[in-house]
Write a structure and sequence with these properties.
Shape: globular
Structural class: mainly beta
CATH topology: Neuraminidase
Number of strands: 30
Radius of gyration: 20 Å
Helix content: under 10%
Number of helices: 4
CATH superfamily: TolB, C-terminal domain
CATH class: Mainly Beta
Largest sheet: 5 strands, antiparallel
Oligomer: single chain
Number of domains: 1
């Protein structure tokens, strides 16, 4: 049984009342705004500022016998349940599937908002203890049942991104990039890992997840490191090396800053047609329910993407003092808006042949879902069509139904990947489940 059905009792009544008071009802036009914020030129309303931001709670409920909905021509089934916060998925060359079960370190409370947010997250099933391990699934047949489920690697410190290059297996813990020796077909790594590189972490560690991918030629690793605050409220010194993507030489461990000003680059992947690095980014909060759109973008070497001084190019954030007009003048406009507060966490480009041909070449993006917007936004997996290495058309819903008809969250999408057959895999950290999406036939 999933842990999620116990969660509403964790929220004190006073905090729940405060959360509901802080969540004003928006007109029905709010959904029209969502549609206008999807694409290369999103609608950007005037910013609003709050003492405490509006908070909209989606209490957790178990899936029971229900499953997520999928687009026509697809079917969905669970291939692993009763996990401990599954967040990232990775398929090994032999077809084994790795599931990163993780959660972040306990953050310090610096503001009244931090205390309220802690209550809100507990009630919504966010931030519960993860397994701090990687689980291996092997031999998953048509019935969705693996022939083997075992711990592949454990005793990790808030792991998130993983990558295999040759016989080197990399794990991005919250505070370090680790390297382990990998043997083809093995079901458990017991050898001690090597700390290839220290990564920015505590004691605050606001965005603890460290995303990871390898370049197509395997020479370089790319690490996404989120900011240590929403908008520098912990001071600029706490942001050193953060809100960046780092490039790491595998052979030497030498790192350099590849791109800056990305508040929280949670998913990294190389687009197959162009060979360019792309990212999904969680933008800043507390400027209103319709600011700032989270986005999908190519990542240009040496580029600055605005955080904290501006958003979507040169739109100034009024809260940041002093400003940096020199940086804002060269801020790169992201490629594709996903709408505000959807919290994209997973990104994967499809090159397989199992799913319908219309998906080939495009990007699947998982949207973990909002906590500061009414109506709620995200809570689904979308597909962004690509043509010639660029987004080409509106995002399409692929996996939905994570919110029931009463505003309860039965699951929250996180990592996306593909199995060896080309089916889509999805981690659900609230439902503690890995789902497989395959052709309906």
């Amino acid at each position: 049984m999933s842990r999620s059905h116990f969660l509403p009792s964790l929220l004190p009544a006073a905090a729940l009342a405060l959360a509901l008071v802080l969540a004003p009802t928006l007109p029905a036009a709010a959904e029209n705004i969502v549609s206008r914020q999807i694409g290369p030129d999103p609608y950007l309303p005037a910013p609003k500022q709050y003492l405490l931001p509006p908070m909209e709670l989606a209490p957790a409920r178990p899936w029971g016998d229900a499953v997520p909905g999928v687009a026509p021509g697809l079917r969905i089934q669970a291939i692993a349940r009763h996990l401990r916060n599954p967040r990232v998925l990775y398929t090994l060359p032999d077809g084994d599937i790795l599931v990163v079960e993780t959660s972040g370190p306990t953050p310090p409370i610096n503001r009244p908002k931090d205390l309220v947010m802690g209550w809100i997250h507990k009630a919504a099933g966010v931030g519960l203890p993860g397994g701090q391990r990687i689980t291996l699934l092997r031999g998953i047949g048509a019935d969705g049942v693996p022939t083997l489920r075992t711990v592949f690697l454990d005793h990790l410190h808030s792991p998130f991104g993983v990558a295999l290059v040759g016989h080197d297996f990399y794990v991005a813990d919250t505070d370090a990039l680790l390297r382990f020796p990998y043997v083809d077909g093995e079901t458990r790594i017991t050898a001690p890992g090597t700390r290839l590189l220290e990564l920015p972490a505590g004691p605050i560690d606001h965005h603890w997840t460290k995303s990871l991918t390898a370049s197509p030629d395997g020479r370089m690793l790319y690490v996404g490191i989120g900011s240590n605050s929403n908008i520098t409220e912990n001071g600029l010194a706490a942001e050193r090396g953060r809100a960046d993507i780092w490039e790491v030489d595998r052979a030497t461990g030498f790192s350099r800053t590849y791109a800056t000003g990305l508040r929280n680059p949670t998913g990294l992947a190389f687009e197959p047609a162009s060979g360019k690095l792309w990212a999904v980014v969680n933008e800043r909060d507390e400027l209103g329910p319709d600011l700032v759109p989270d986005y999908l973008t190519s990542v240009q070497p040496g580029a600055f993407y605005g955080w904290p001084y501006s958003y979507w190019g040169d739109h100034l954030d009024p809260r940041v003092k002093p400003q940096r007009p020199d940086l804002v003048a060269r801020a790169v406009v992201p490629d594709y808006g996903l709408s505000s507060h959807v919290a994209p966490l997973g990104l994967a480009f499809y090159e397989g042949g199992a799913l319908p041909a219309s998906y080939r070449g495009g990007a699947f993006v998982s949207e973990h879902g909002s906590w500061d917007r009414d109506p709620l936004n995200g809570y689904k997996v979308v597909f962004v069509p690509f043509r010639d290495g660029r987004p080409d058309g509106k995002a399409q819903d692929v996996v939905t139904g994570f919110l029931d008809g009463h505003g309860h969250a039965r699951g929250r999408p996180v990592g996306v990947a593909f199995d060896k057959a080309g089916d889509l895999l999805l981690a659900d950290d609230l439902g503690d489940t890995v789902w497989r999406i395959s052709p309906a036939q």
